[in-house]
Specification:
Layout: H1 3-29, H2 32-50, H3 54-67, H4 72-94, H5 114-135, H6 140-156, H7 164-178, H8 183-195, H9 220-231, H10 236-246, H11 252-268, H12 274-289, H13 294-312, H14 331-339, H15 346-369, H16 373-395, H17 405-429, H18 432-456
């Protein structure tokens, strides 16, 4: 008997034993099948929201649905359990262990077989949500949950359904129609349009709606995030999302709106130094793009440097500030696959940090050529500290396989870029202690870069046969 079959029998026996033991307690209470189903449901939801024991959650919920087939919440939860199991199998295949749970990472099946398993699981997930919706079509939350299952399918290829993205859009739109005052439904629709820009409804086009960035046509993703921020102005992640859109513009109106969005996020999340770094990036961008006299450009760069130095001295840096509106029962695997990478805008943040580093390294070189060696050293040291903060924040990030590697790589690269000219300056100063410290730091960075390169390299392929 294969390992997979043995583990399956063990899991079934364990669930059966739990059912017998729990059944004795419920029978003693005399509350009947509905109370037993409720207890099974609550136990399963605990497993799902804890991000573990998905197979057990499936078994518990299947029994709950059998006992109380008319309860639509149980069917929604069962659909989430099937979807969570499919996502976890995919997640484990990406991280080198296939077919287990968070508590059991031992591989059960080969990566090449994952699609054959996830497809039927997604199909059953959709069937359960469809069953719930057929009984309670006006519950917006069911449509929202089904939309995320379709979106995950479309992004990850779980079932091969070419229409999964369009189906996700349909479900999110229905959730918004049923309950237009809920911000999370509009956020999810915005996420769909941002992640799948080729959907017919996601193509950027001029809009009659009022635009806060007149030079940029309003696309549906931006419109959804803006509407969500209006409904829930207390969420810093939404203002950060709006900032990322307006920061891509080229007009003064775009820049002003980006700064306003960033300030709103900062006021709501005052301990996060990310907003000061991004404020510095906006200042350097303004200095380089605006047709300004040299003294005004120098003033903008000086202000940007002060922002970086202040950010370096703040205790907290969190680069993942946007929280997608995942359904709670599938939030953990969705967050591992998408939450810390695509949906948290890691690339725009990385680009901003890289741009700051490049601009200040260039500024340091200008100061050296002007003979302002002390000022140049201050600039290089600020960039070095910024890169160190970014690398530390990436190391602490809780995400899926590889979710923090790009930002960690960016942080290391920024430090290496600043350390080279800084070491040369220390040599010119005749400061042996600083030179030794810089050389030791360089060795540490080289070692970390080697480890990171090995981590980011694709695994070797084994010979067939």
């Amino acid at each position: 008997m294969g390992r997979f079959a043995i583990r399956l029998l063990v899991a079934v026996f364990a669930v059966a034993w739990l059912g017998v033991a729990a059944g004795a307690c419920w029978a003693a209470g005399g509350d009947g099948d509905s109370q037993r189903a409720k207890a099974l449901y609550q136990s399963a939801v605990h497993h799902l929201e804890s991000g573990r024991w998905y197979a057990r959650a499936v078994a518990l919920l299947e029994e709950a649905v059998r006992l109380d087939p008319g309860n639509t919440d149980y069917r929604e939860a069962l659909g989430c359990a099937y979807a969570a199991r499919a996502l976890d199998l995919l997640l484990l295949s990406l991280s080198g262990g296939v077919g287990g749970t968070r508590a059991d990472r031992q591989a059960l099946v080969a990566s090449s077989d994952i699609a054959q398993i996830t497809g039927p699981l997604v199909k059953r997930a959709v069937e359960e949500l469809d069953a719930a919706i057929s009984v309670a079509p006006d519950v917006a939350g069911y449509h929202h949950t089904l939309g995320w299952i379709y979106l995950a399918d479309a992004r990850e290829g779980l079932s091969g359904d070419a229409e999964a993205g369009a189906r996700a859009e349909q479900q999110f739109l229905e959730a918004v129609r049923l309950n237009p005052g809920v911000a999370r439904y509009r956020r999810s629709l915005g996420d769909l349009y941002r992640l799948m820009p080729n959907l017919p409804g996601a193509k950027a086009k001029p809009s009659a709606a009022a635009s806060t960035a007149p030079s940029t046509p309003v696309n549906p993703a931006l419109k959804m995030y803006s509407d969500a921020a209006t409904l829930d102005p207390s969420d810093p992640g939404l203002w950060f999302m709006l900032y990322t859109y307006h920061a891509q513009g080229s007009s003064q109106a775009d820049a002003a709106q980006a700064q306003a969005d960033l300030q709103r996020a900062w006021r709501l999340d005052p301990t996060n130094s990310l907003y000061r770094y991004l404020t510095a990036w906006l200042l350097t961008k303004q200095a380089d793009e605006a047709d300004l006299p040299p003294d005004q450009k120098d003033a903008l760069l000086s202000q940007a440097l002060l922002e970086v130095q202040a950010a370096n001295n703040m205790p907290d840096l969190r680069v993942a500030v946007y929280t997608p509106a995942f359904p709670r029962s599938i939030a953990w695997p969705l967050g591992q696959l998408m939450g810390a990478t695509e949906l948290n805008l890691s690339q725009p943040v990385n680009n901003a940090f890289r741009d700051i580093g490049r601009r200040f390294i260039s500024l340091g070189g200008d100061l050296e050529r002007d003979g302002s060696l002390n000022d140049a050293a201050v600039v290089y040291e600020a960039v070095l500290a910024m890169g160190n903060r970014l690398a530390a924040a990436a190391s602490a990030m809780d995400g899926g396989p590889g979710s923090n590697l790009v930002q960690l790589s960016t942080g290391l690269a920024i430090q290496q870029t600043a350390l080279r000219p800084l070491t040369e300056l220390y040599l010119r100063y005749g400061a042996p202690q600083q030179v030794l410290a810089a050389q030791q730091k360089q060795r540490e960075l080289d070692y970390m870069a080697q480890l990171l390169s090995a981590e980011m390299s694709p695994p070797p392929t084994s010979p067939s046969g």
